UniProtKB/TrEMBL annotation:
Keyword Phosphoprotein annotated: yes
Keyword ATP-binding: yes
Protein name: Chemotaxis protein CheA
GO cellular component, one term: cytoplasm
Annotated CheW-like domain residues: 400-541
Role of this protein: Involved in the transmission of sensory signals from the chemoreceptors to the flagellar motors. CheA is autophosphorylated; it can transfer its phosphate group to either CheB or CheY.
Keywords: ATP-binding, Chemotaxis, Kinase, Nucleotide-binding, Phosphoprotein, Transferase, Two-component regulatory system
GO MF assignments: ATP binding; phosphorelay sensor kinase activity
In-chain residues carrying the UniProt-annotated modification Phosphohistidine: H48
GO biological process, alphabetically ordered: chemotaxis
Lineage per the UniProt record: Bacteria, Pseudomonadati, Bacteroidota, Cytophagia, Cytophagales
Domain Histidine kinase: 193-398
Length: 544
């Protein structure tokens, strides 16, 4: 398996060789037409990008040549120098030298001595004449030139999306063939099915791997954002970025871009104090904000951490009561995590005034919806006076999801494992009725329990009050967790845990909020995928 350094080096080489090819083309165009501003602009841009990339990789020799070439092309753009006379062969020599230096890195060879070229480039910058060799000798840096193609290719995301969809179809058919081979019992068919299973698995992970990008491609855009927001809020903020090399599906990174932007702006606008407030609280005037990424089993955790004033749980509790989200009596019994969950309710805001950064009605509920759409989770931890941490728990890929299959009224359903807390089997005596709702005591916590059949089939009115006498024998219960709220779902029986490929619902079924999509089981049976966030919201709306 390749190291991160090897992967970065391959990416650098692919881009650098492309830059070299483009430089060679554009400088030839510029020689034919010295007034070609498009070619001149491209040469300046290419030199700038190569300089930055080479220095970032530690290839300082390449960076120095590119830097001086960039300077000269800048002088030509500003009309201080003309692309004519002795300047032309020196710049051509510079492009050729860069090509040789790039190839030397790829082949682990010593980088060619560029001192003479650098001296000539410095002379040109200073407006002096360079020291040129004979054209015959130069015609020899040509006879030895090689034409090379990059080992890497760039693929449009939509092509990878299409390939991933095809792999999803293959996975579904693979499972069907595996099931059929077991039913028929033919050793030859079972062997072929096992081989197909391994190939499909390898293909699936290869395609998923091709879609992975570094989190740093998004994180590295935030220093400027933080600077601009801090200036607008009149705050001093130091940004720390960790885990840039953690990899995640590019589509997931695209979907969370706005959510992460909102959390960062929220941390600066709401979380961090002004320099005066921090000084009074005995803190350094400069606030600290950290963007961090790490892996945890099959998930990627992205955190936004600030050392600000933290979340005042009692203030949120009062605001939730004012908004009618919870009764005063019920609010008193909620723990800190349950109270902080109100921050994700639509339109909920603690902003005292409207600014360009906060308080315009776009709250954390938008962030929560984005994370929910990926089958992820959003957690918030906070200590008053010390700071707040928002944690985005994201799947590495959205192509295939782990799910728990269960049966209800002789139909199969699936619940994503991301929202599955645990499964339990309880006797009716283990359940109690409180306020018309069944409750189970699990690990010291009271968890409401509802018959999923009743919840799926309920009309616009509230759920019927629970009656323990209607329960007969052992009850299989799936405990789901959404927004720090646990809910027990009574089902007919557990089936198994399985990776599934979720397909979107077709019209008009896509209007049903309770289902997040469908999948096809190995038996060929269509299986509806439960949308846990929507189901939890429905339960809260319909509870008696």
């Amino acid at each position: 398996m390749k190291s991160r350094e090897e992967e970065y080096r391959e990416i650098f080489m692919a881009e650098a060789l492309e830059y070299y090819d483009a430089m060679s083309r554009h400088i030839s165009e510029l020689e034919k037409d010295p007034d070609d501003e498009k070619a001149l602009h491209e040469l300046f841009r290419l030199m700038h990008n190569l300089k930055a990339n080479a220095r970032a990789m530690g290839f300082n020799d390449i960076g120095e040549v590119a830097h001086r070439m960039e300077t000269i092309f800048g002088l030509i753009r500003s009309k201080e120098r003309a692309f004519a006379g002795s300047l032309v062969p020196v710049l051509f020599a510079g492009v050729d030298t860069l090509g040789g230096m790039i190839r030397a890195v790829d082949q682990d060879e010593a980088v060619a001595n560029s001192d003479k070229l650098l001296h000539n480039l410095d002379l040109l910058v200073q407006g002096e004449e360079p020291i040129l060799e004979s054209e015959e000798k130069n015609a020899d840096e040509d006879a030895s030139r090689k034409l090379e193609l990059s080992d890497l290719v760039y693929i449009q995301i939509k092509k990878l999306d299409h390939l991933l969809n095809l792999v999803g179809e293959l996975i579904i058919d693979r499972d069907r063939i595996m099931t059929l081979s077991q039913e028929i019992g033919s050793p030859a068919l079972q062997a072929a099915a096992s081989h197909l299973f391994r190939i499909a698995d390898d293909l699936q992970y290869s395609v998923m791997d091709a879609r992975l990008v570094n989190v740093g491609s998004l994180f590295n855009k935030f220093p400027r954002v933080v600077r601009d927001v801090a200036v607008a809020e009149k705050k001093e903020v130091e940004l720390t970025i960790n885990g840039q090399d953690i990899q995640i599906d590019r589509n997931i990174l695209q979907i969370i871009t706005d959510a992460l932007l909102h959390l960062v702006r929220n941390a600066i606008g709401h979380g961090l104090e002004t320099p005066e407030e921090r000084r009074r609280a005995g803190k350094p005037e400069q606030g600290n904000l950290t963007l961090s990424a790490q892996t945890e089993r099959d998930d990627v955790l992205i955190q936004v951490i600030d050392d600000g004033k933290g979340i005042d749980v009692e203030q949120v509790r009062r605001k939730a009561v004012e908004r009618g989200l919870v009764t005063t009596e019920a609010a008193r019994s909620l723990d800190a995590s349950a109270v902080r969950a109100f921050l994700f309710e639509p339109g909920f805001s603690m902003a005292k005034e409207v600014t360009d950064i906060s308080g315009r009605g776009v709250g954390l509920d938008v962030v929560k919806l984005a994370i929910d759409s990926l089958g992820g989770q959003l957690r918030v931890d906070s200590v008053l006076g010390q700071g707040t941490t928002f944690t985005l728990v994201l799947p590495t890929s959205i192509a295939v999801k782990g799910a728990l299959l269960f049966e209800l009224e002789e139909r199969s359903y699936a619940i994503p494992l991301m929202h599955t807390d645990s499964v339990v089997s309880l006797q009716p005596n283990d359940l109690h009725v409180v306020g018309g709702i069944l409750m189970a005591r699990l690990l010291g916590e009271n968890v409401p329990v509802v018959d999923l059949r009743q919840l799926l089939h309920s009309n616009d009115g509230p759920l019927l009050p629970a009656v323990k006498a209607e329960l007969q024998g052992r009850q299989d219960i799936i405990i789901v967790n959404y927004n720090n709220r646990k809910l027990g779902l009574i089902v007919d029986r557990f089936l198994r845990q399985q990776d599934i490929v979720i397909k979107p619902m077709s019209k008009p079924l896509d209007m049903i909020d309770l289902f997040g999509g469908v999948t096809l089981l190995g038996s060929g049976q269509v299986c509806l995928v439960i949308d846990v966030p929507a189901l939890t919201r429905l339960f809260l709306a319909k509870r008696p």
